[in-house]
Specification:
The protein has 204 residues and is α+β, with helices and mostly antiparallel strands. The protein contains 8 helices and 8 strands.
C-alpha cells in the first residue's frame, strides 16, 4: 500500500500539470492508448471528487463509471453493470475518456472500496496483456476441436464455462460471446484460452 501511495503522489504531480485547470475544478480528458485509466481514477479518488468518467471507442462502444466523494458507486457498459462493467472498461486500451464533474442520478451497483477495485484491476490488466498475446484478438472466433467420445467424457466444466461453451458456434467472436453471455471480456477470454490449452476448442 505504501508503494501504491508513493506512486499515486508521483502520478498526481505529473497529471495535475497536464490536466487540472484548478484544484477545485477538474478538466480531465485523454486517450486510453496513452494513459492508464486506473491511474487517473486513483487521482480523482484521492481528490474526493464526485462525477463520472465517460469512455468511448472508435467502434461506437460507450461506457461510464460514476464516483461519489472519491468512491465508485456505479458503472455500466452495454449489458454489463457494476464490477463487471468496471473491469471491462479498464481493459480498454484504445478510445477516449473524459471526466465530468458533478452529481448524477444513478443507481448504486458497486460496494467494494475503490482501492480494492483498482488493485484487482491492476492484477487483471497484467493478466489481460498476457491473454491478448495468447488469443491474438477478441475478434478471434472459437470453434470446437475434433475430440473423440471417450475424451469428451473426461471433460469437466464449471457453470460459467458451460454458459460460454453453449455460445460457441464457429461464427461468433470472443467479444460477441462475452456480450451475449453477460460475462466480462476478461473472464470470457480467460475461460476460452483455458479451453484452447485443453484442446477443447481452437481459434480462427
Amino acid at each position: 500500500m505504501r508503494h501504491l501511495d508513493k506512486r499515486c503522489k508521483s502520478l498526481y504531480y505529473l497529471y495535475s500539470k497536464l490536466f487540472f485547470k484548478e484544484v477545485k475544478t477538474m478538466s480531465l480528458k485523454g486517450s486510453l492508448s496513452s494513459i492508464n485509466l486506473a491511474d487517473i481514477m486513483q487521482l480523482v479518488s484521492n481528490s474526493k471528487q464526485t462525477g463520472r468518467f465517460v469512455l468511448t471507442r472508435g467502434n461506437g462502444q460507450k461506457g461510464s463509471i460514476y464516483l461519489k466523494n472519491g468512491e465508485i458507486i456505479h458503472a455500466d457498459v452495454e449489458e454489463f453493470k457494476g464490477e463487471d462493467a468496471i473491469f471491462t472498461l479498464i481493459s480498454w486500451d484504445e478510445g477516449e475518456f473524459v471526466f465530468e464533474e458533478g452529481a448524477f442520478d444513478t443507481p448504486s451497483s458497486v460496494i467494494r472500496p475503490i482501492t480494492s477495485l483498482l488493485m484487482e484491476a491492476a492484477r487483471r490488466i497484467d493478466e489481460w496483456k498476457l491473454l491478448r498475446k495468447k488469443i491474438g484478438s477478441i475478434d478471434a472466433i472459437p470453434e470446437f476441436s475434433d475430440i473423440d467420445r471417450q475424451e469428451r467424457r473426461k471433460i469437466s466444466l464449471s457453470t460459467m464455462e458451460w454458459v460460454i461453451i453453449a455460445k460457441i458456434d464457429g461464427k461468433k467472436s470472443i467479444n460477441q460471446i462475452s456480450r451475449e453471455c453477460g460475462v466480462n471480456i476478461y473472464d470470457t477470454s480467460r475461460i476460452i484460452y483455458g479451453m484452447v490449452t485443453s484442446d477443447l476448442i481452437k481459434l480462427k
